[in-house]
Every structure is written in C-alpha cells, then in structure tokens.
Design goal:
Blueprint lengths: L2 H16 L3 E9 L7 E9 L2 E10 L18 E2 L3 E2 L3 H13 L7 E4 L8 E6 L7 H6 L4 H5 L1 H12 L15 H15 L4 H12 L8 E3 L8 E4 L2 E5 L6 E3 L2 H8 L17 H10 L7 H24 L12 H7 L3 H11 L5
C-alpha cells in the first residue's frame, strides 16, 4: 500500500470528526520541501463546499531527541525545551500571529491522538508561489517584487508585536544563548574548520548590547513566504520561533543564501534601506544597520554549521536513519556561507 493510500482514510475520518461530513478527500498530494515535516495538499468536501487545505505532520523522531543528543545541539532545539514548535503549540502561535496582523496560515484542525495521524495541524491552503528562484525571476511577480522588501519590513514589525503572554512555551534565545547552541553543534560535529572558528569568535566579540526582546519568527526568509502577483500572502514555517532579538529576523532575511539567484541583498528582491524604512514606518522601532549586519553575519555561520551537520549526518536523526541525497548536497555548500561571512566582515558585501 502506498503512503498516500494509507493516509487517505485516516485523514477523511479526521476531517469528518473535526469539520463535518462527508469528509471526502480529493487531490491528496505530498509536497516537496520542508526539512522537518511531511506536508500534504488536498481538498476536503465539507457539506456542499470543497475546502482547500494543507496537512503538516511532524515525524515521531522529530518530537524526541536521539539518544546522546543534548537539547540545543541542533537548529530548532531549544535548551531544556525539546525540538521545535509543533501541534497545539504551533496552532496557538499562528493564532497569536494572526491577531497581530501577520498573514499567517489559519488553522482548521489540531490533530488529536484519536485521529491516528501523529502530531500536526491542518490549515487553510493559500494560493501562490514559495520557490525563491521563481519569486525572483518569474515575470508574473515583477510588480510584486518592486514592493516586496517593504512588505517584509511591515510584516516583521507585526510579528515583533505578537503578544507573548499566552506563548509560554517559546524558548528564550538571546544572542549569547544562540552562540552557545551553535558552538555545541560545531563541537559535536568534531570537524574543525578555521573559517567556522573565526566566525564563532567574531560573533562572541560582537554580541549586541541590551537588545530588545520579543517574539521572533526565527526563519523569516525568501522560500518561507507564499507570494502572489499582489505580494506576500502568507508567512510559513514557524517552527523556530522564540523570544529574542528582533533584528535577527531582519538579518536572516538578508543572508545571501536566501537570494536564490537574485542580485539584491534582501531576499534577492530588494534593498536593505527599503526593508529598514518600512519596518520603522510600521512601528517596529529604530533599526541600526550595524546591528542587523551582526545577525546577517551570524546567519552565515549558522547556515554553514547546518550544512556541516547535514553533510556529516543529522545529529538529531533517529539511530539508523538513512541519509538523503538532499542532505549530502546541502553539506557540499558549506563554502558559500563561509565566503559570504568573510565578505560581510571585510566590507566586501554591499
């Protein structure tokens, strides 16, 4: 029996239970992309309506740490908190984001144990493009690209206004905590590289002083946005959200890796001054470009270590898990973010 055929009857039962009969599932397709969740697109027949939905399931091995792996040893693992944000917690975070005016997915179902679908959520499906290269090059998005950096700035200001009071599961990860996490990754990989060591030392010597603290998306970038010809329609992949320095989100969006062939510094589609000005206009607070550049440079080192981790074998994977070709290919790209880091700290990157 195929994975799809195994899933469909259980998914139909869950739709009937939570949304109503008849609960028929049409056009069930597994989507590519996403490193930590299985994502399925489908239409559900509820009453007389055909509702476009997305199922995201978190594999069981992602909900527990592999033996011998300490919390905080991999991206998405917060010290003492376990890996990432899933299920009911993700639903609560997305609801809080929508209340703050963020175009986040609307959750229709939080999977329960009786659904026999594992941990996850079902959200409404938003039409648009997520592939960064298409967003940056396809003529359909030419008009949207012109205002995309500014729109990202205003969305980030809204994200940073999310009320954290009901999100007590969010880990507190200021810069020094993140540095310790990535230092641990480097040590666990046991594959010393001079450029990585230089990067971690540079980060330690340039930690921001007394930054603001708020809800941070943690992975806001081209590739995690649904874009239409009218601009950003939805912000995806909230698994790395935490409490921290809001400038992290602006810096991560500018990391060169996420430009996908575009020539401009913000996601390949815009300029930093457009991003910063829109963020300030939307009430996000003043932006110090040097502060953002710190997080952009740190982001290069983070991605380099993620590449190293993938290339050597995922430390958070279950024992005996097979390595994917994609993971090995990611590992081979480690030189790119390291060169980007060196260009940034030597002022060769505009």
């Amino acid at each position: 029996m195929s994975e799809r055929d195994d899933l469909q009857p259980r998914l139909e039962a869950a739709v009937r239970r939570h949304l109503g009969p008849p609960g028929e599932i049409r056009d069930l397709v597994r989507l590519t992309g996403g490193a930590t969740k299985a994502t399925w697109s489908f239409d559900a027949v509820v009453g007389a309506d055909r509702v476009p939905l997305i199922l995201q399931q978190t594999p069981p091995e992602r909900l527990v740490l592999a033996p011998g792996v300490a919390p905080g040893l991999a991206p998405g693992l917060a010290p003492g908190r376990g890996p990432g944000i899933h299920g009911a917690r993700e639903a609560a975070l997305l609801a809080a984001a929508r209340r703050a005016g963020v175009p986040a997915p609307r959750v229709r179902i939080v999977l329960a144990a009786d659904d026999d679908l594992g941990e996850g959520i079902i959200t409404e499906r938003v039409a648009g493009e997520t592939l960064g290269r298409k967003i940056n090059t396809d003529a359909r998005f030419a008009a949207a690209r012109a205002g995309l950096a500014a729109r990202c700035g205003s969305i980030l200001a809204s994200i940073h206004r999310i009320e954290p009071a009901d999100l007590d599961f969010l880990a507190d990860q200021p810069a020094h905590v993140q540095l310790a996490m990535y230092r641990a990754i480097a040590d666990a990989c046991d594959h010393p590289l001079p450029a990585v060591e230089l990067g971690l030392r540079w980060v330690a010597e340039h930690l921001p002083r007394a930054p603001r603290r708020c809800v941070v998306h943690g992975d806001f970038r081209n590739g995690n946005l649904i874009v239409g010809d009218d601009g950003v329609r939805c912000v995806l992949d909230w698994e790395l959200a935490h409490l921290g320095d809001p400038m992290l989100d602006l810096g991560w969006l500018c990391v060169k890796t996420w430009r996908f062939g575009g020539s401009l510094p913000v996601g390949g589609f815009g300029h930093r001054d457009e991003l910063f000005a829109a963020y300030e206009r939307a009430g996000g607070g003043p932006v110090d470009p040097a502060h953002v550049r710190f997080w952009e440079a740190f982001g290069c080192i983070k991605w380099a270590l993620m590449c190293l981790q993938k290339g050597l074998g995922d430390l958070g994977a279950a024992p005996g898990a097979r390595r994917s070709v994609e993971a090995v290919a990611i590992g081979r790209r480690i030189e790119e973010p390291l060169l980007d880091f060196l260009d940034l700290i030597t002022a060769k990157e505009p």
